[in-house]
Amino acid sequence: MLENYAYARIIRNMRSEHFSKFREFLDSGTTGAKVTQITLCVLAIASVPVLVFIAAAMGNAVQVFKQFESSKRFSKRQIQNSFTHLQRQKLIEYVADKSGKTIVKITKKGESRLGTFAIDLIEIKQQKKWDRKWRLVMFDIPMRFTKGREALRFHLKKLNFFQFQKSAWIYPYPCEDEIMFISDFFGVGKYVEILTTKNLLREKKIKKYFGLN
Fold first, then answer.
1. Is the pLDDT of residue 100 over 50?
2. pLDDT (tens digit, 9 = 90+) per residue, 56-93?
3. Domain containing 27: what range?
4. Are 10 and 54 contained in the same domain?
5. Which terminal Cβ of the chain has fewer Cβ within 10 Å, N or C?
């Protein structure tokens, strides 16, 4: 399980930058998106962790969905079925509020799934003008966290970091928030350090890798 500090960091990020990524995804009309994936994103944007949707008022939920281009191609029945699927997967649950009304709540498992999805959407913005600084991501992760270490390496490769050494990766643009988000999610954040330096002895090869002058 995620440590409390890591979990809290993920939720904070989800509420800000990564919610904007969810919105971009929903507005993009991505053809490969599954209705259940879209449902969870819409619910997350609506409110975290408790939703304002009253379970019986599905029509209201459908109207919220229709605000996003990628949701318009789904029927009311498909959206209803997605709620059922999310409940069976224990990603959402129905609970009674103080007034006795039944509302929908995203579970911790559902928030974790959103965290995974947020990671998949992460992109590191390139500066229009490079500040001529290198970001060096280093880690010494114990063997008992093998899955977390491999997951971090996978995402560093995916984000096009340059592998300087086995556990040292280089990137030319600010990336601290994104890398710590990923590291915390996989429970290895406290073993990761990110340094900023202006000089590397053999930076010519690295500049070429990133297409920099």
1. yes
2. 445 555 665 666 555 566 677 777 777 788 888 888 88
3. 4-121
4. yes
5. C
Q: Place 142 in a pLDDT band, splitting at 50, 70 and 90.
A: very high
- With 0-12 CB in 10 A as exposed, 13-18 as middle and 19+ as buried, what is 87? middle
CA–CA distance, 198 with 91 (Å, rounded to integer): 45
Question: Can you give the three-state secondary structure of 75-97, one letter per residue?
Answer: CHHHHHHHHHHHHHCCCEEEEEC
Write the CATH number for 201: 3.30.70.240
Please check whether residue 129 lies inside any domain of the structure: no
Domain of residue 82, CATH code: 1.10.10
Domain boundary residue, one of 62, 95, 121: 121
191 and 96 in a common domain? no
> Could you tell me the pTM of the whole model?
0.64
115 shares its domain with 143: no
The pLDDT of residue 154 is above 50: yes
Same domain, 27 and 60: yes
Q: Can you point out the beta strands (E) in the chain?
A: 50-54, 92-96, 102-106, 134-139, 162-165, 168-171, 192-197
Q: Answer yes or no: are the C-beta atoms of 166 and 157 closer than 8 Å.
A: no
pLDDT at site 29: 55
| 126 occurs within a structural domain | no
What is the average per-residue pLDDT within 12-41?
59
